[in-house]
Amino acid sequence: MKGRPDLATDDRRGLVLVMTGRGKGKTTAAVGQAIRAAGNGLSVKYFQFLKGTWNYGELDVLRSIPNLEVERMKTGFTWEPDRLEEDRALAAAMWRSARTAVLSREYDLVVLDDVNYLVHYRLLAIGEVLDLLRRRPSRVHVVLTGRSASPEILEAADQITEMTDVKHHFRSGVLAQSGIEY
Ligand code: ATP
Ligand code: MG
Questions:
Q1: Residues 167, 171, 173, 176, CA torsion sign
Q2: Most buried of the four, 36, 52, 128, 134, by CB within 10 Å?
């Protein structure tokens, strides 16, 4: 699909969008943003930085969308203290891929879903993220999600949305629901 001419003008200003906070909705907002961008002719790459045990069905749907590519980690982090180096290597490999995507000019919007966690748990140096945001081509939009976004990332952002956990069914004993949580 070709980009819409009105979106392909050179005056587009790439934005850094951050979705953070303790409430639910960060990943689903990023998925929505990716769909909107692709639907308007932008070329999108969506990176999922955390691989849980759940099947994230939304990623399969995203993969079926024209102009939209998805990359997720092949194995998850161990989160075991004595296997920290393995986790670091996993994070580094995924980060290299994301960095290449942002710098390549192949994509108009790159989603780094849950990347804030990696920085928070020191699997990825904050300097790497800031360096990439600084160097990115000026037309590229970048979305970063995850709780505990670091102050430096908030500083670098053009837009910050904080999800507030006002009420969550989990606390009344209702477990994660297919189609809602995963
Ligand atoms: P979603 O993927 O539903 O948009 P999220 O990206 O904001 O949520 P994460 O912080 O990535 O949430 O958490 C991962 C999982 O925990 C998701 O299944 C999410 O629905 C669930 N979750 C998010 N916030 C809460 C909360 N306040 N209490 C319990 N579970 C939550
Ligand atoms: Mg999430």
A1: positive
A2: 128
| This model's pTM is above 0.85 | yes
159 CA to centre of ligand 1 in angstroms:
20
pLDDT tens by residue, 25-62: 999 999 999 999 999 999 999 999 986 666 678 999 99
Q: Which amino acid is at 69?
A: E
Q: How far apart are the first and last CA of the chain?
A: 29
Helix (H) or strand (E) holding 124: none
Which ligand 1 atom minimizes the distance to the CA of 28? 4
Instruction: Please tell me if the CB atom of residue 27 comes closer than 6 angstroms to any atom of ligand 1.
Output: yes
CB of 163 closer than 6 A to ligand 1?
A: yes
How many other C-beta atoms can be found within 10 angstroms of the C-beta atom of residue 131? 12
CA 39 to mean position of chain CA atoms: 18
Report the SS3 class of residue 13.
coil
> Residue 64: CB partners within 8 Å, gap ≥ 6?
none
- pLDDT reading at 103 higher than 70: yes
**CB neighbourhood size of 92 (10 A):** 15
Position in ligand 1 atom list of the atom nearest CA 22: 27
